Each structure stands twice: as structure tokens, then as C-alpha cells.
Amino acid sequence: MSDERDWAELRDRRMAEPGAAEAYEAARLAFELGKAVRDLREGCGWTQAQLAEVARMTQPAIARFEAGGTVPTLPVLDRLAHALGAELVVRLTPRSSAA
């Protein structure tokens, strides 16, 4: 059996476990939020340490967040947005149904 098939079978089994889809979605969200902050920070020409100082956080906390390792609270997102001169927009929109 090839490594690709082994991986595909393992992935399928794991994704069928209870809570797997929710955990995958949480990881995707954490990654996307981290990428957005990293892109804004780099656009400002700042290091993680500089952002951490302005946002009243630690550099390791910024690094973990940018790597998708944590999902922040809304107050933390608001602090990061303010530090980066960005507007935090949180909204719920209906999902489009697949037809």
C-alpha cells in the first residue's frame, strides 16, 4: 500500500470521528486570523516584538497567534486591530446552500 493511500485512509478515518470537522474548522479559522494579523504587521514594517509592545502582549504570544496556534478572544483581536490601525469587523452571514 502506498504512503498516499495510507495517509488518505487515515485522514478519512480521523475526519469521521466525532468533533473532527469542528476541530478542523477551528484550526482553519485560527490560521486565517493569524495570517491576516501577520500580513497587516508586515505591511506596517513591524517585527513581532514591535507589535507585541504596541498591543500590550508578548512576542511569543504574537508568534503563536500568527502561526495559527491559538484562537484569540474578541478583546485580544480588538487590541491587535487597534495596534495595527485596522478595524475589527465581526459578522455572521448565512451560508450559501450548495445546489
Tell me the CATH topology: 434 Repressor (Amino-terminal Domain)
For the record, what is the CATH homologous superfamily label?
lambda repressor-like DNA-binding domains
Helix content: 55-70%
Our Rg estimate from Cα atoms comes to: 17 Å
Tell me the number of structural domains. 1
**Which overall shape is indicated by the principal axes computed on the Cα atoms?**
extended
Compressed to H and E, one letter per element, the order equals HHHHH
Question: What is the highest CATH level, the class?
Answer: Mainly Alpha
> Could you describe the largest sheet, including whether it forms a barrel?
none
Poorly predicted regions are none
- Mean pLDDT comes to 91
**CATH architecture label name:** Orthogonal Bundle
H/I helix tally: 5
Class from helix and strand fractions: mainly alpha
Query: What's the N-to-C terminus distance?
Result: 36 Å
Domain HTH cro/C1-type: 37-91
InterPro entries: Cro/C1-type_HTH, Lambda_DNA-bd_dom_sf
Protein name: Helix-turn-helix domain-containing protein
Quick synopsis:
With 99 residues, this protein is mainly alpha-helical. It has five helices and no strands.
Structure description:
- Pfam families: HTH_31.
- This is Helix-turn-helix domain-containing protein.
- InterPro entries: Cro/C1-type_HTH, Lambda_DNA-bd_dom_sf.
- There is one protein chain.
- The chain is mainly alpha-helical.
- The protein is built from five helices and no strands.
- The chain has one domain: 434 Repressor (Amino-terminal Domain), CATH 1.10.260.
- Helix 3 crosses helix 4.
- The model has no long low-confidence stretch (mean pLDDT 91).
